[in-house]
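Go through this:
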Amino acid sequence: MSPPRATYRLQFRQDMDFERAAGLVPYLARLGVSHLYASPLFQAVTGSTHGYDVTDHGRMDASLGGMAGFERLSGALEAAGLGLILDIVPNHMAASPENPWWRDVLRHGMASRHAGHFDIDWSAPRLVLPVLGQPYGKALEAGELALGHAQDGLVLRYFEHAFPLDPRSWGLVLDPAQMQPPQAPEGFARWIGEPANAGRLGDRLEAISRDRALLHRVHEAQSWQLAYWRAGRDALSYRRFFEITGLVGVRVEDEGVFADVHRFVLALIEAGQVQGLRIDHVDGLADPAGYLARLRAAAPGTPVWVEKILAPDETLPDGWPVAGTTGYEFARLAGGVLTDPGGAGAIAAAYHDFIGAQPDPEAMLAEAKREILTWNLAAELDALTRLAGAAAADDPLARDWGADTLRRALVALACAMPVYRTYLTGGAGGETDAAVLARVERAARASAGLEDPAAVSDVLRLIRAGAGAAAARLRLRFQQTTGALMAKAMEDTLFYRFNRLVSANEVGGEPEPIGLDPDVFQRAVAARQPHALNATATHDTKRGEDARMRIASIADAPGDWRAAVAGWDARLAGAQAPDAEMRWLFYQALLGAWASDPPGALAERMEAYMLKAAREAKRQTGWTRPDAGYEARLAGFVERALGDADFRRAFEAGARPFIAAGARKSLVQLALKLVLPGVPDIYQGTEWADLSLVDPDNRRPVDFAARQAALDGPGAEGFDGAKMALMRRLLAQRRETPGLFARGACRALAVEAAGGRHLGAARAAGGDVLLVLAELSAPPARRAGGPRFRLPPEWQGIAFRTLWPDTALEVGGGAVAPGDGFAGAPVVVALGRAPG
């Protein structure tokens, strides 16, 4: 199958299974995409809403329809000529007894044949499982623990959880003379299948479960240790995903583990049922480059995309054998160019006046990093400190530094990282990493709290090029940790604390600067890999693609926004109002989400969003230490606002110009995504207005029936209709002239503007020339003539026809211009063919 023309992302689980997805395939084909882009499909924990908590890489999730259901979906895709891109999760699995590999590790400890599959510190006394709702001793005394059995052996039960007991400990509770079940899982399953055996064993285990001392002895005989859930912060003995203790790191860098993890998906590729792979959280892997090289060797003709967040001045490491990223940087670039930098000063002034402070986002990020690393990721920091101590002990220049000095140096280094991670493998790294680490060293040595900055340089030297196993492990774990640190500090903390213009607070983005010059945008887009995904919404973005454009429109008229917010806030003034920072966020979020939802439904969505935002900010409340009083006041504020008809009318009146401007920006954003280099990625449901908030709001069920009816009938009305029509027309053009989009060079067109901000770009290949002419920000007052876009001499004789909208295009004098000067539509796409 040819490389993708366009992808359509479906979130499986909840209301989407294989049968329903197969029924949507004809619609997706008519819409014009070439590939279904599926969230993880392999067996996950019971009740999983997303599939990233995989329990078995070797089978399709039964809740989706199992392998039989997948075969039907695969057949529907093949019949429609569509491919399948599958999201896979090599970095981590569910730390759940439902995971057969993890279950075997729990039962047998280091003797398990899967002990090397997981990133576990086997030098620790026990494998800590932080699952209890209270400290272990209290749970034991409260009778919350009890003995039981499963189909494969004895277990220790904690409510719905069942933790396998090491067969060597069964003798503590069973008398071999009276009862001796087989210890092998298969034999035990046959034995327990006899009703008499099951009854006798159940009676025995129930009787002795009342003996707290014996229960404790049984627990202490295991390789694992049940612990209070709060112990996950600083007492873990395995690598987790970010700060989620329910996800354990997988050692996919090991050749045997790689084979076990990928055997099934490689078979699907070999069978022609999967045509591409998305690699989740590539930065979590020990050696991303090595992993990708091994994957390329195993599936040489299969394109691979990596979920990788790039800093604004960062590119993918040289030599990675991938088609590109999943496209967060495109969303950042598109959002930036559609935000007017001319409004930055006024937005900042309005924000500062409203909250009564002038926060510095760079200083706030540094504060958030330190807080996350020393609190949320304390277990990871402790592990790094131990590794640094072991590495330093073998190094004459570093051996004098104590644990506290090493810890402070590690904090300074990790918090100074300007990117998610470096990619050192066995040496000092390439030029890019060297430049990053030189910058990190300078910043870290200048940070507060160091007794001697030389310790920073020594620890960095150990990380970069230290010899020995401890240094190698330190190098690996430090790089894995900095990615998690950046994600948690930036995306899940700073983005909810610094709310100046939250359309910039997006995954893959940064809160400043506000806006992007069109020339910078075009150079950056042209430099991306030609088959990288162009994403503007994903299951992880902080707000819907069209909600983001509404908020970006604030930069076009910051004075009007300031006045509108002042009026709204005056209406809601009172003792129950939350702090100014959260109110400033609320008005932007409400602008993005404002729709025809009933007030009650919108209030429910906004209340859930504001609660999540407040907990992520970790100022007034938090996930692990919620402040019930503050959260009640916050909920009451939202209910008061959206339950007040006068406020709703006032808000709609003030928001109307921004909603209209945002709709125009959204159409430009869509056109840029579909025309410029890259593979457009359409997130489920976004062929209509996407006014969602952060997950789980952006994973709500999609009304596909209405979209299918609109596609096959007269079409939807208003913005929904315009968006779907533009999408369908340009997807059709991608199908009609695939070479133009696969190989077409991209060049910028100079703009002779008449007020406002504009962008002109062209794709050209094989004689075909495609123009996209866009108004990024409307002028305060339109002038006669409008903007003109200069054509290069070789294109000045071309007769262009507009693909969208149905409007005239004026060509002459070496330039082209929309006939109505963008008074009608904000973007014009036209196609022509060079003579000869």
Observations:
- Residues 645-675 form the longest helix (31 residues).
- Residues 195 and 201 are 10 Å apart (CA to CA).
